[in-house]
Design goal:
39% of the residues lie in helices and 16% in strands. The mean pLDDT is 92. The strands form five sheets. The protein has an eight-stranded parallel β-sheet with strand order 10-9-8-7-6-3-12-11. Strands 13-15-14 form a three-stranded mixed β-sheet, with helices on both faces. It is an alpha/beta fold.
């Protein structure tokens, strides 16, 4: 069980130095117990105390890493039940299921989709990030061949190796060990062999139980063997029960500090239905409550894209607006005589404005000003989208090397800045554009350089 605030306080240096960001060691201890700070913030804690406090300093849902390098997938690390309390930390992995019973053409097609399907949104590349390789034949050679092919074809995607037979996983592991895959799954029947396999290769291990009580006893055994990189599967494949178990697991770990269930989970909508749309709906449910990995039967653009957007929205910090990078964005292949517009970097604003410019078919430059993620009106009211911030940003942007004219179109909502902009941008004509982005296509069609 996690330590209480008072128990943590007894192990702290009690200097009240304030270097941790709070005024007293007692306040720091209470914040640490609540998962609102990190032990590393205390510069004076002894190594002996640090070892004793490691459990209290860890998040209620431990962090698990699959893969290596910059494309490694982090799961868990969660500290709250509800996003508005703080934020959700690590987005769940979305996997495509590939079986060694599939024809080679189908395997190749799925690996190609896994590597190539991606979408651009709010300046980010959205994509799924896992392939789940299932050894249904029971043949070590077949799963090993599939793992070797996936290692080459799946690009930066991480790998889950699926079999309840340790010798099958061992053969597949030798084909892709450097990818640091997740091993699925340790059960009550094979747990000792799975622990040995995972420890030998220093890999994360998925543990599958028949129910929550059995799952907890299995994770305790795995953790006592020195493995901390654990993913859990309570085993349910019925929608209602699986949903209930996800909620119970998260609440047990966070509110009751029950460490045996404090790990990211893996769910299988692909095993709950044969209907692709129902599978997508189940996946969306588990995005919210509270899966660490979601395994799909296939990637379909009409369902994968909405899931990726939902994941982005849910795992965006609600206290920090989603923002687009400041800079010049070229739309419809603009040239030296194309119009120049300016807007804020609130991502929704950027996508609406850029979309309307694109729809107009008029080539143009859109300068996105950093307003800390605020919309045009909010940023203007806060002094972050005014003449004294817009003018220097545009003049330093390099746009004058791209256009011959000196005309800037500003949003109608900040028409009051026209005079100040003309003062700060000598030789420029400031044009007040429409208030609503929907009116931009008609407005731009009147443009004359």
């Amino acid at each position: 069980m996690a330590l209480t605030g008072i128990e943590i306080f007894k192990l702290l240096p009690k200097t009240n130095c304030g270097q941790c960001g709070v005024p007293t060691c007692l306040a720091f201890a209470m914040a640490l117990a609540a998962g609102k700070t990190e032990l590393a913030r205390c510069p004076h804690v002894s190594e002996e105390a640090r070892a004793k406090l490691s459990e209290a300093a860890a998040p209620p849902i431990l962090t698990v890493t699959i893969g290596t390098g910059e494309h490694a997938l982090k799961l868990g690390g969660e500290t709250v039940l509800f996003r508005h309390e703080k934020r959700f930390e690590n987005p769940p992995g979305i996997a495509i299921l590939i079986s060694d019973t599939m024809p080679e053409a189908e395997i190749d097609a799925r690996l190609r989709k896994a590597a190539e399907m991606s979408y651009e949104r709010v300046g980010l590349t959205l994509r799924a990030n896992l392939v789940a390789l299932k050894g249904e034949t029971g043949s070590p050679e077949k799963l090993a061949a599939l793992a070797a092919k996936a290692k080459q074809a799946a690009g930066n995607l991480n790998i889950i190796l699926m079999s309840e037979r340790p010798e099958v996983l061992g053969a597949a592991l030798r084909a892709c060990a450097e990818k640091k895959p997740l091993l699925y799954a340790a059960t009550k029947d094979n747990i000792d062999a799975m622990i040995s396999l995972a420890k030998e290769a220093s890999l994360p291990l998925a543990v599958k139980g028949d129910d929550l009580e059995g799952l907890a006893s299995l994770t305790e055994k795995v953790a006592s063997a020195g493995l901390k990189q654990i993913v859990i599967d309570p085993g349910a494949r019925k929608t209602a029960r699986s949903f209930q178990e996800q909620v119970i697991i998260r609440s047990s770990a966070i509110t009751k500090k029950f460490r045996p269930l404090g790990y990211p989970t893996i769910v299988f909508p692909c095993e709950m239905t044969d209907d692709p749309m129902k599978e997508a709906m189940l996946a969306a449910m588990f995005l919210v409550k509270y899966a660490g990995i979601i395994v799909l039967s296939d990637y379909r653009g009409e369902s994968l894209f909405p899931l990726l957007v939902a994941r982005l929205n849910i795992y965006t910090d609600p206290q920090r607006p989603l923002a687009t990078k400041q800079g010049i964005y070229e739309i419809n292949n603009p040239g030296a005589d194309s119009p120049l517009l300016v807007t804020s970097n609130f991502s929704l604003t950027y996508f609406i404005v850029s979309g309307e410019i694109e729809n107009s078919r008029v080539p143009g430059y859109l300068f996105v000003k950093d307003t800390e993620g605020l919309s045009v009106m909010t940023a203007w009211a806060a002094g972050k989208f005014s003449a004294d911030t817009i003018a220097p940003a545009i003049l330093k942007s390099g746009i004058t090397e791209k256009i011959r004219h000196r005309r800037l179109i500003i949003p109608g909502y900040v028409a009051a800045e026209k005079g100040a902009l003309e003062e700060q941008m000598p030789g420029w004509e400031i044009v007040v554009g429409p208030r609503d982005a929907a009116d931009l296509p008609a407005f731009l069609k009147t443009w004359k350089s």
